[in-house]
Amino acid sequence: MTRFRVRKRRRFRGGRHSPSGAPSGLKKIALVGSPNTGKSVMFHNLTGSYATVSNYPGTTVEVSRGKGKLGNNEVEVVDTPGTYALLPITEDERVARSILLEEKPGVVLQLVDAKNLERMLPLTLQLIEAGLQVILDLNMIDEAEKLGIKIDVKRLEEELGIPVATTAATSRRGMENLREKILNYCRTEPARKPQYNLHIESALEKISRLLKEDYGLSRRAIGLLLLQDDHEIWERIKAREDKNFTQIEKVVEETRQKYSQPINYIVNRKRVWEAKQIAAEAVTTPPEFKTTAKERLSRLMMNPITGIPILALVLYFGLYQFVGVFGAQTLVDFLEGQIFEGYFNPFITQLFETYIEYVPLQELFVGEYGIITLGIRYAIALILPIVGTFFIAFSIIEDTGYLPRMALLIDRVFKKIGLNGRAVIPMTLGLGCGTMATIVTRTLETKRERVIATILLALTIPCSAQLGVLFAIMAGNPLPLLLWALVVVLVFLLVGSLAARLMPGEKPGFYMEIPPLRMPKISNVLMKTFTRVEWYFKEVFPMFILASIAIWIGQITGLFDILINVLAYPVQWIGLPSGAATAVLFGFFRRDYGAAGLYDLQQAGVLSGIPLVVAAVTLTLFVPCIAQFSVMIKERGLKIALAIGLFVFFFAFVVGFLLNLTLTSLGVQL
Fold it and tell me: 3-class SS at 636?
């Protein structure tokens, strides 16, 4: 392969501006780059707090959008999901490319980790090949400098033919220079593009001539994606190139026949080679890197021998003490016990009883399961403190760079159940709130992984509210608690392993950038927490209102009485008193209400010994609360949600029956 000749003069310059001070036609800036390159921080630097987070149409992938000022003009900034290439593998990468294809941003700002420039340049070359208006931002330049890495920015600009900026987004260093480069950007000559071998270049020329429509990327880039067998691009071409589609197919097939290796491999190898040559020209690294204290700590976090104790400490102090004790107990006791039960609920109940005489309407809003006294109280006084403290803890863990290290540590275990290390995030969140955790499964890469994670969350992960009551039921007697935990963990591993074997699809891969460890920045933590709490009120809060309405309808129609009578049969079948049927039913509407029902039966002396353990296990495995089930429908679709719900319903009673039979047959005394 012959390297093309590098022009030594800069191939971009400032363009003409509109009277308002912004480049003509500049409407949208797309932030692009690998995960953990600082895109979220850069997004907030460019937009401030004026941002919205929403799902990209037709997907479960979130995209942040905001408005910022450049000169005197307001522009839209889009934070695309993390991507490594324009040939997508994950749903995140598909969405990132769709934004570039369909929204046609005026400037594409690619953020890279300045310490790992060579590894990230292949994406830069792809963006340039695609004909996009690219600015390369060497972010985390301060960390690169501390390691003794020197980057010749002017030489890099000459090599690539695009503007290059250096920033440290967390400290806002270099932001003014970056804004100026965006404002004045207008590339007037072709930037650097890899030159492939004769057969591929010939095919690209033919395809470019045959393509008649505009696809948002250059025809050369579209041709490369076709040669690499991109199914989505093939569908677009088939729909829009009726006359020439057969000829394009023929060119692609003839080109493939000339190689024994996939064209994707050949193209990527060329880009990697080009990236290496560019980095050699512009980057100077010290002969030896000094191992810093942070680097040593990083290695300890990823080593199983030392990483597991560190993980245990993080989970104990970060989740159990901060979220479980401070959030789920201290804050919940204050908000629910003192604010809602002490002041708000009595006041609002008195108000409705005074001005609304129709009792059923009163009960809809302020009854035992009313929209205000149950739904709003539950969402604000019970769940918000838990998810709020979790969001703070999660933002700190995320900002320090520990999260990818934790995912890497757990990856090997999770591979056995069809997941990868990234799934530790929703599983951990599930111990706070299963509803939120189900939404967070959208961060997993494949539909197969998202379905497996949703099943495990619905079946085996108790939320903190339910967990607290179950602990209270089994307090003072460690054997029932140990049996309960053992059964739930075994079910988690068994169902995960079976799902991994039975569900079609590829085994999960795992690739994650490992950012440097750093002290969390308070402003970043607060901004991320605020954004996620705002999302909670938009996405989850309405679910609690709907749950209250469903309970109200069940009561006034007598449907609850029918369901309790039906549930009494399987409840007695697993060795429980018929009164447990009410607890099981209400566990669907509020998990802690179901556990509280068992607590009342225990205090009354009706439930103890083996039946108590069986009841605790069955209720834990029973169908998730209505809010979580509603989110399952939203995230996975009605058919999958119903299938999971039916499976969990029957499986919980089967496990309860087998557990009761086993313990009774063995004569276990509890």
Answer: helix
User: For residue 377, what are its two tokens?
Assistant: 């109280």
Give the containing element (helix H, strand E) for 462: none
CA distance 428 to 419: 14
Q: Which residues have CB under 8 Å from 596's CB, separation 6+?
A: 469, 583
Q: What values do phi and psi take at 432, rounded to 5?
A: -95, -55
- Of the candidates 281, 418, 344, the one whose C-alpha atom is nearest the C-alpha of residue 7 is 281
How many separate helices (H) and strands (E) can be counted in the chain?
32, 9
Where would I find the H helices in 61-116? 91-103
255-272 confidence digits (pLDDT tens): 988 888 888 889 999 999
Q: Does the pLDDT value for residue 21 go beyond 50?
A: no
Q: Report the 10 Å Cβ neighbour count for 636.
A: 21
Q: Show me where the domains of the chain are located.
A: 28-183, 198-284
Burial 83-121 (b: 16+ CB within 10 A, else e): bbbbbbebbbbbbbbbbbbeeebbbbbbbbbbbbbbbbb
Which whole-number Å values give the CA distances from 4 to 38, 117, 134, 162, 227, in the listed order? 32, 21, 21, 17, 21
Q: Is pLDDT larger for residue 495 or for residue 8?
A: 495
What are the structure tokens assigned to 307, written together? 């990483």
CATH architecture of 28-183: 3-Layer(aba) Sandwich (3.40)
Residue 190 pLDDT level (bands cut at 50, 70, 90):
low
Which of 68-82, 208-222, 362-376, 429-443 comes out lowest in average pLDDT?
A: 429-443
Asked, colleague to colleague, whether 28-183 and 198-284 share their fold, the answer is no
In sequence order, the β-bridge partners of residue 79 are 31, 64
Residue in the block written with tokens 């970060």: 318
DSSP state of 338: I
* Of 264, 222, 266, 228, residue with least CA distance to 244: 222
The sign of the torsion formed by the CA atoms of 514, 516, 517, 522 equals negative
| Beta-ladder partners of 109 | 31, 135
Between CA 232 and CA 322 the distance in angstroms is 45
Report the interhelical angle of 263-282 vs 153-160 (nearest 10°).
150
pLDDT 10s digits, 549-608: 887 888 788 887 888 888 888 888 888 877 778 777 777 776 666 666 676 677 777 777
Element (H, E) at 52: strand 51-55
Distance CA 19, CA 439 (A): 45
Six-digit token pair at 74? 């307001």
Q: What is the 3-state secondary structure (H, E, C) of 269-281?
A: HHHHHHHHHHHHH
* Cα distance between residue 635 and residue 615, in whole Å: 30
Top CATH class, 198-284: mainly alpha
442-497: per-residue pLDDT in tens? 777 778 888 999 999 988 888 766 776 677 677 667 788 888 889 999 999 999 88
The per-residue pLDDT for 454 is: 92
Low-confidence winner among 2-11, 127-136, 337-346, 456-465 (lowest mean pLDDT): 2-11
d(CA 462, CA 481): 14
The H or E element that residue 164 is part of is strand 164-166
pLDDT: is 173 or 586 the higher one?
A: 173
